[in-house]
Each structure stands twice: as structure tokens, then as C-alpha cells.
Amino acid sequence: MAEMTVELVAVERRIWSGSANFVLARTTVGEIGVLPGHEPTLAQLEEAGVVRVDGADGTSTTLAVHGGFLSITPDNVTVLAEYAELADEIDVSRARAALDRADTSEPDGAAAAARANARLKAAGAAEH
């Protein structure tokens, strides 16, 4: 199966780097799935979303991403995030508490709720 090089980078650190078969991300204009050989694309990531990378070794890496960009070439995908957190690093109880505290009637509260929901979704603990 074809592969591409993927890098997930946040402002404070490199999160993940390696070979992958597929990347799924949510941009400001919708969800995008990327396979090797994809048309070159530059997209703004949703303010609070989830990115999934299916590694060439059969593993899947999921993370919560807050802001940033997605850069795609036929052989490479780079996610440049303002903030990103791997699913297994997410403290679900803290994310739920943040969601409970968020005042969605305020713009900052709505953004905080969206970030908390993205963290819960990435961790597989989203409330339906």
C-alpha cells in the first residue's frame, strides 16, 4: 500500500512523525481525508477538532487539535497546530470539568466548550 510522511507539530513540541496510509482532519470548510498522492492543499484547521492518522504499521493515532493549518503534498502531510494533545494524554475528568464550567452564552465560553468537546471526542469519551 502507498505511504506518505506525516508530521504533527504543535507550537510547543513535535507530537508525531512517521509513515502513514491515511489522515483525517476537520478544516474550517469541512472534513478532509488524505491518501498518498493527494493534490497539494493548504487548509485552516477547525478551531477545535480531532485529527486521526492511520500509520503504515497498522496503528492509529488520534489527537485533539486547537487551531492551525494542514499542509498537503502528494508525499507529505504536515499538521501545524496551535495546540495539540494525543488521545492517551487527555485527562477525561478535567475535560468534562472544563465543559461543565464553559459558559456557552459567551464567545470565550463557546470556544472553551468546543475545545473540551474535541478533547473528549479524541479520547473516545464524547457524550452523545
Description:
- This protein is α+β, with helices and mostly antiparallel strands.
- It has two helices and seven strands.
- The protein has a five-stranded mixed barrel.
- The longest helix is centred in the last third of the chain and has 16 residues.
- It is globular.
- The N and C termini lie far apart (35 Å).
- Its main location: membrane.
- Produces ATP from ADP in the presence of a proton gradient across the membrane.
- InterPro entries: ATP_synth_F1_dsu/esu, ATP_synth_F1_dsu/esu_N, ATPsynth_dsu/esu_N.
- This is ATP synthase epsilon chain.
Spell out the key features of this protein:
48% strand, transport, cell membrane, alpha+beta, ATPsynth_dsu/esu_N, ATP_synth_F1_dsu/esu, 5-stranded mixed β-barrel, 128 residues, membrane
Task: Chart the SSEs and their pairings.
Blueprint: E1 4-10, E2 14-27, E3 30-34, E4 41-44, E5 49-55, E6 60-72, E7 76-86, H1 92-101, H2 107-122
Parallel strand pairs: 1-7
Antiparallel strand pairs: 1-2, 2-3, 2-5, 4-6, 5-6, 6-7
Helix pairs in contact: 1-2
Overall spatial form? globular
Largest sheet report: 5 strands, mixed, barrel
Total strands: the figure is 7
Radius of gyration, rounded? 15 Å
Amount of beta strand: over 45%
Helix content bin: 10-25%
Order of helices and strands: EEEEEEEHH
Helix count from the secondary structure assignment: 2
In whole angstroms, how far apart are the ends?
Answer: 35 Å
Spatial order of strands in the largest sheet:
1-2-5-6-7
What structural class should be given to the helix and strand makeup? Answer: alpha+beta
Mean pLDDT reading:
92
Ranges where pLDDT stays below 50 over 5 or more residues in a row are none
